[in-house]
Amino acid sequence: MSRLTPCLAALRAENHAAFVTFVTAGDPNHETSFEILMGLPGAGADIIELGMPFTDPSADGPAIDKAAQRAIKAGANMKKTLSMVTAFRAAGHETPIVLMGYFNPIYAYGIEKFCTDAATAGVDGLIVVDLPPEEDAELLEPANANNIDIVRLATPTSDDARLPAIVNGASGFVYYVAVAGVTGGKSASADDIGEAVNRIRKYTDLPVAVGFGIRTAEQAGAIAKHADAAVVGSAIVSLIENGIDADGTPKGDLVENVLNFTQTLANGVRSGR
Fold first, then answer.
1. Tens digits of residue pLDDT in 98-156
2. What is the pTM for the complete model shown?
3. Hey, which residues are catalytic here?
4. What are the two backbone dihedrals, phi and then psi, of residue 19, each rounded to the nearest 5 degrees?
5. How far apart are CA 10 and CA 13, in angstroms?
6. CA distances (Å), 43 to each of 7, 38, 104, 114, 204, in order?
7. What domains can you pick out in the chain, each with its CATH number?
8. 229, 20 contact by CB (below 8 A)
């Protein structure tokens, strides 16, 4: 069992939604990115999604796309991403970490070796946005063998015929992408999200996390009323972008600003119920 299941179960028992943060590994550089990662648990993050930088992030909007490019320019790669998780665990942090990204870097690394190395580092789950359920067996089996959850994505277009295929074999949680389009786009209404979450729950007992388009504490709180978790990514990544100079050098208050904003969002999630 990964850390995801007991984490989400404990929060559910307390009638709290989880607050899930997303940051890109290595953005704006390895050192600053690791400092942010280390500070996220203390800033209220219950689960951390760590983006695996990729040159062609087709599902991501401008903010996360640029974050990936900054990270790659600064020397990010899969080994460094896993080393961040290793160091995070060595420091005593037990916050679940889910690696999020695309299949190409995993395939290039070697699927079985990746799953083994990710488990050794302390990774709990994977979200691979361009790998549909019909094609993920080659990743699902070695991941599950290493107690790594495969988190599947549902969208507004996932109808009653599609949802059973999405949840079959999924573990950890189901990630509901609340709006059609790329990351960082417009927000869906709370009523629409509530209806979607209830529809997904007809097909699975897994917790349902909702993301895409959450930018404020108020929006995060509204999501927390309906979902088991609220995910914020682009808003945090945009704050990182705003905290660097034209040459990519982090400003002195970047980490503090990111963690303060994260705490504000966490408070919003906590006040949602």
1. 999 999 999 999 999 999 999 999 999 999 999 999 999 999 999 999 999 999 999 99
2. 0.95
3. 49, 60
4. -105, 120
5. 5
6. 16, 10, 32, 29, 31
7. 4-270 (3.20.20.70)
8. yes
